Amino acid sequence: MQYQWYPGHMTKAKRQMQDDLKLIDVVIELVDARIPYSSKNPDIQSMAAHKSRVLLLNKADLADREKTEAWKAFYEAQGYFVVPVNSKTGSGVKSVGGVITKACQEKIERDRRRGILNRPIRAMIVGIPNVGKSTFINALAGKAITKTGNKPGVTKGKQWIRLNKSVELLDTPGILWPKFEDQSVGLRIALIGSINDEILVTTELSYEL
Questions:
Q1: Quick one: fold of 8-178?
Q2: Which of 30, 69, 112, 170 has the highest CB neighbour count under 10 A?
Q3: What does pTM read for this prediction?
Q4: From CA 39, how far away is CA 31, in angstroms rounded?
């Protein structure tokens, strides 16, 4: 079975994301802690290369703790601010606000030198479909702000969310990339529910699992 899913709305969402990055101070990317390499979109990596980056290893409760720590160290060595989280229980979520501020410290100091005080940090939430972005935002805000669901494609368009006086979030739809060069990456993404089930042969997927 070939694993690929890149519907037209993802092309549109990617173009919108490229435009919106001009307004953003920090990019918060969610990956699935069970497959922290395969669930990381290389298109997002290249688009946001010049921004401060926070990487959240979501669903950390479902992953091996020691391996998660190893992946955390791996991505920190690449310049990311990394936090393992469980958006459903809220574990690790409270620390994210402080990490966002830390990631934007240079920007805050630059504003201060220009006499700009208390301007909110603008953060963009990104990731592949069904990685838990909406659940994370609701956990961070402490209330249900965004619609969630156990399938890809629940978030249809972008929306600005004011978390507090110091942080504004831009939620974006989950996007994949046009072609999985390595089909084992596609398989892992299919197994965590990030590809529409309607285009998959789920019995074959079960055998692979």
A1: Rossmann fold (3.40.50)
A2: 30
A3: 0.89
A4: 5
